[in-house]
Amino acid sequence: MKPHVVCHMMPSVDGRIVLDHWPRGVASAALYDATAEKLNTQAWVCGTVTMQEFASGRFRSTGKRSNTPKTDFVVDDGSKSFAVAIDASGRLAWKSNDIDGDRLIVVLSERATSAYLDALRARGISYLFAGKRELDLGLALEKLRAQFGIRRICIQGGGKINGAFLNAGLIDELSLTFVPVVDGAMQTPTAFDVVGRAQHSPARLRLLSVEKLGGGAVWLRYRVVKRRG
Q1: For a disulfide at 204, which of 8, 164, 180, 225, Cβ 3.0-4.6 Å?
Q2: What is the pTM of this model?
Q3: Cβ contact 199:156 at 8 Å
């Protein structure tokens, strides 16, 4: 079984998500976090690019040989909230097994080196394998529920990881806090960017709720209509 998957983003009206050049005050972490908290999820997920903000740089091997097997490593310490890094090849270095009070879990493919696994183990960081070269996100979700009891999980971008989950038919709900700005910049990441050819037709949505927030922002929640067959 998989967790209920919510994708939560704070895009411009035209769907862009890089806010560095937006007018000051139009989007804030407080606004994003306030809506995210109401989703009642137990874990949040980001891809490698977004997770660089929380990591300590790129992993550099010491060159020491290692035969650590490429099997799941789970630290059972009673944690109830989690931060999940999707890092297929094991590129991010970590100093701690905790991000702002949430226990870190790294999702890998078998491209990750044994030396990288040793570095995670040394810091008490759980990791799960979900594919040989390409990630099987459905398998990752199943393991997150089975190993950590995660029933509701929040995908928090960027656009490529959101697009990958959407393209795989794994998102159950969208939570979009639109802020009052039109970006218009070409080649700017959007809330959903599918790399390569999409395997599915565009997702159909059913509106769950609309809430007007302060400063002209609007919070929309949608259920993703699942395809039959």
Answers
A1: 225
A2: 0.93
A3: no
Write the CA distances from 19 to 62, 173, 179, 219, integer angstroms: 37, 23, 10, 17
Q: Which residues of 133-142 are buried (b: 16+ CB within 10 A; e: fewer)?
A: eebbbeebbb
Number of other CB atoms surrounding residue 22 within 10 Å: 15
SS3 121: helix
Distances (CA, A) of 52 to 55, 127, 141, 176, 185: 5, 17, 22, 23, 23
Per-residue pLDDT tens over the stretch 124-161: 999 999 999 999 999 999 999 999 999 999 999 889 99
What is the total residue count of the chain?
229
Location of each CATH 3.40.430.10 domain in the chain:
1-42+151-229
> Looking at the domain that runs over 1-42+151-229, which CATH code has it been given?
3.40.430.10
